[in-house]
Specification:
Number of strands: 5
Strand order of the largest sheet: 2-3-1-4-5
Distance between the termini: 10 Å
Bound molecules: shikimate-3-phosphate
Helix content: 40-55%
Shape: globular
Order of helices and strands: EHEHHHEHEHHEH
């Protein structure tokens, strides 16, 4: 089974993906980690040194590599992955399930204020400006996220409950 998680930065894709992979006993992959390993550099450095367009090209290339492998996996993507280069359609075509982990703007703000540093797109945004930035950004990205096979409402639910909910949706 090939399962992909999409959602905004800080929506819990990695946490939920890892937990589900453990439950299902299949391997877990994080696309940001794949990019960092293959380019031997951090996401922040790649953004700073080579720029976002270079990052998006590599993200697209490695996503296709991961999706084309024969083995089962759970993949957590980056917040922007579904929004570029037809990636969302490719994921829908090649994976068995694409789950969108949906969180409210206040929920995202609360999480992201604490973990802005390693995220190049929000690192330089003042805490007070985050709600407006995230709101606008989500508005643009929602068109892609909402194409997922299942939309999981994540506010006020703990990871175990979310994993149980997702497991209930797997055939
Ligand atoms: C990005 C999200 C990040 C990472 C990169 C760009 C985005 O991943 O891929 O910083 O465009 O939203 P996370 O969603 O895991 O933070």
């Amino acid at each position: 089974m090939k399962i992909v998680f999409v959602g905004y930065m800080g929506s819990g894709k990695t946490t939920i993906g890892k937990l589900l992979a453990k439950k299902l006993k299949i391997s877990f992959l994080d696309l940001d980690e794949v990019i960092e390993e293959r380019l031997e550099d951090s996401i922040s450095n790649i953004f700073n040194g080579k720029g976002e367009i270079f990052f998006r090209k590599k993200e697209h290339e490695y996503l296709n590599d991961v999706l084309s492998q024969k083995n089962n996996f759970i993949l957590s993507t980056g917040g922007g992955t579904p929004c570029y280069s037809g990636n969302m359609d490719t994921m829908l075509e090649l994976a068995d399930y694409v789950f969108y982990l949906k969180i409210s703007i206040p929920g995202l703000v609360k999480r992201l204020i604490l973990e802005k540093e390693h995220r190049p797109l929000i690192k330089n945004i003042d805490d007070g400006d985050l709600p407006e930035f995230i709101g606008k950004h989500l508005f643009e990205r929602n068109n892609f996220y909402l194409k997922a096979n299942h939309i999981i409402e994540c506010d006020n639910k703990d990871p175990e409950a979310l994993v149980a909910e997702i497991q209930g949706l797997l055939a």
